[in-house]
Each structure stands twice: as C-alpha cells, then as structure tokens.
User: Which sequence fits this backbone?
C-alpha cells in the first residue's frame, strides 16, 4: 500500500529531479525570443534532447547588462571593484560585452544554469544542517558565489546576484543586500524555493513554511508582488504534494501520460483546480480562458503573456503549461524549452510542478543530465533527511 509519506516522497523526488531537467533542457535556448531561431539552431524540430549552448545567441542582450551592479548599464567598474570577474564569476568577465554572446557560453549538453546550481547548493545546505536559518544561508550563498575557482560553471549571473554583491561590497548587512531593479520580480526568484518548501512542509504549518520561503526569497528579491507569488507557489506545492490522488512511482518517457482511469480523472481535476487557484496570484489571470484559447501554446506563452522573466507574465505561463501537461513531464519540459524566452527558470519551476502532479521523471531526459549521479545522491540525502520516515 502506498502511504501518504510514500506518495509525498515520490512526488518530492520527482519534483526536484525535474527542476534540474527543465533547466538543463532549456539552457541552450535560454532567452531565445523568436521560437523560429530555436528551429534554426537545432533543426528540424528544435530541442528534442539535451544540447550544448551554441556559440552565437540571436537575441542576446548580455552586452547591455551592468557588470558592476544589478540591472542594465555600463560594463565598467565605476571606480570600484567590478562585480562580474572581481567578486563573482571569476574568470568569466571576458564573456560579457560581446555581441550575440551566449549567456551560458561553453556549457555542455545536460549542464545546469547558475540558478539551478543555486537550488542544488540550498539542497545540500539544508541536508547538512537539518533546518534553515537566513543568516547562515546568506553566508553559504556568499561563499558559493565568490568561490575561486567558481563553484559552478556558468558564465552568466542574473541581476539579483550582481545587485546583491554590489550592495555587499558597499558594506550592507548580508540580510539586507537584495537589490531593487526593473527585473527584481522575476521567475528566477522561484528556482530555489522548492527544496526549501518541500523540506519543511512535512513538519511545519503552511503559514510557517510560507513565511520562511518569503524571507528566503527576500534576501535576493525584495518585492512585495513577487512575495505574494511565493506564497501561492508554496501553497500550490503543498496541495499537489499532499493530495489524496494516486502517486505514480517511477519514470516515464516523454509523451507517456498517466492512464485515464476514473481515479486519475478525479486527480487531474484536483490538480487543475489547484493551478487555477494559484494563477490568481497574478492580478487578472484566470486559467480556464487560457486553456480554452485556440492557437496552440504560443497563443498563451508569447502572445497573451510575454516570454520575458517578469513574474506577472511568467507565473501565468508556468501555471498554464503545468495545467496542460501535468500528466506528461517530458512533454511539458520539451514544449517549454521550444517556446523560448525565460524557459530555463520557467522550466525549473514547471519541472517542480509536473513532478509533484505526476510523481514521474522523464527517463531519457533525466539520464542526459551531466551531473545526474551527483544530483541523484543530493536528492537521496535530502529525502532521507526531510521526507522518508516522517
């Protein structure tokens, strides 16, 4: 018999594995804003498997991003240390400022972006400690980001990281270094939430877990509207992970959906209902009209809502995709990658949601993760500490 603990563990493990799958699958075409460019880069059908980052990025604006603070601006030190190269991303400064330079230059097939590495770092931090404390996590985050040589392989750091370390170098308290820029409320903020929320939910109240996750995200993304989405995301994870529906243990190929019994139909209705509630964290967003819209997924993800990182668009996009493809994680993550835009961080969050909904991981894609064995060990240790036996 599958117990509630077994079901939670199955779903949580699938969620964390799919976080890394969704990120790595989209990495080579991260921020491709014209889906046609994805087809050109990976003919004839776009992304179908893990791929390396191409040398050229057709819609890169990396040259416009400041290397001394968050947001956009001059790529110079402005009289102080240059954050990119001097403080973080050591040895990677020369990759900035190049026309059509790829954000994730040099990453091989199956490699993860910085924010997924950040989530993995939090996973091991939690496992080692057994709990979460903001100041200790801030110290660990600082050590991770400033390591020399770097503790991750990515050449790009989002605005939140650059802004945080600009404030830290200026002398702010590590708990008050979150920078406010035009892209503070962004999808990248949600990537690290899953390992924290899913670790705490078995033994703490939803309100307490939401409060901890808000404080965690606020360290790098101090934005009230974004934090309301964090609350919705945590509540959605709690509902999906703990629902009464059958947990299907194991893995599945892309294109293999959970079978259509009456029990599964009722479970699917519960999943879509949970997503319909969660999407309302974005003002004016409603799931039913999006699911009824004609014109395919691009009519929603790209036209109704922007492909960009801003949370008011990215959150409805991820809820829509999870509702459409919750029974088939592999297809969900392939569709997401080929839609383009903010597909890597969107893919990490989508992977979490479809993992919780289905309890499954796409076998072939997960097997192509570059660090699959190490990631599996990290998730095993995390699960043993927080989920199994609770």
Assistant:
């Amino acid at each position: 018999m599958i117990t509630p603990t077994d079901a939670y563990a199955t779903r949580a493990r699938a969620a964390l594995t799919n976080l890394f799958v969704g990120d790595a699958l989209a990495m080579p075409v991260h921020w491709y804003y014209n889906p046609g460019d994805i087809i050109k880069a990976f003919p004839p059908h776009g992304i179908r498997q893990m791929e390396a980052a191409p040398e050229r990025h057709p819609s890169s604006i990396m040259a416009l991003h400041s290397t001394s603070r968050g947001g956009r601006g001059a790529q110079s030190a402005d009289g102080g240390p240059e954050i990119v190269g001097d403080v973080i991303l050591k040895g990677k400064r020369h990759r900035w400022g190049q026309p059509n330079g790829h954000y994730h230059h040099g990453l091989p097939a199956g490699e993860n972006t910085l924010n997924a590495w950040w989530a993995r770092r939090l996973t091991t931090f939690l496992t080692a400690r057994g709990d979460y404390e903001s100041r200790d996590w801030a110290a660990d985050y600082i050590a991770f980001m400033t390591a020399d040589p770097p503790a991750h392989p990515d050449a790009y750091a989002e605005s939140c990281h650059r802004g945080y370390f600009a404030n830290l170098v200026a002398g702010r308290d590590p708990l008050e270094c979150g920078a406010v820029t035009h892209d503070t409320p962004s999808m990248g903020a949600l990537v690290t939430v899953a390992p924290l929320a899913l670790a705490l939910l078995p033994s703490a109240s939803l309100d307490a877990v939401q409060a901890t996750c808000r404080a965690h995200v606020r360290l790098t993304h101090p934005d009230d509207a974004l934090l309301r989405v964090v609350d919705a995301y945590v509540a959605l994870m709690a509902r999906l992970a703990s629902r009464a529906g059958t947990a299907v243990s194991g893995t599945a190929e892309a294109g293999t959906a959970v079978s259509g019994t009456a029990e599964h139909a009722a479970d699917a209705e519960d999943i879509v209902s949970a997503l319909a509630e969660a999407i309302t964290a974005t003002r004016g967003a409603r799931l039913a009209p999006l699911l009824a819209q004609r014109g395919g997924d691009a009519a929603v993800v790209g036209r109704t809502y922007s492909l960009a990182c801003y949370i008011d668009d990215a959150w409805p996009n991820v809820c829509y995709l999870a509702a459409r493809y919750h029974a088939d994680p592999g297809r969900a993550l392939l569709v997401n990658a080929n839609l383009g835009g903010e597909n890597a961080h969107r893919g990490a969050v989508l992977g979490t949601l479809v993992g919780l909904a289905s309890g499954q991981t796409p076998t072939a894609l997960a097997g192509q993760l570059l660090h699959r064995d190490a990631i599996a060990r990290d998730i095993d240790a995390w699960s043993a500490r927080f989920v199994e036996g609770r």
About this structure: The beta strands are 251-252, 361-362. The chain has a mean pLDDT of 92. The CA atoms of residues 160 and 220 lie 6 Å apart. The chain has 17 helices and two strands.
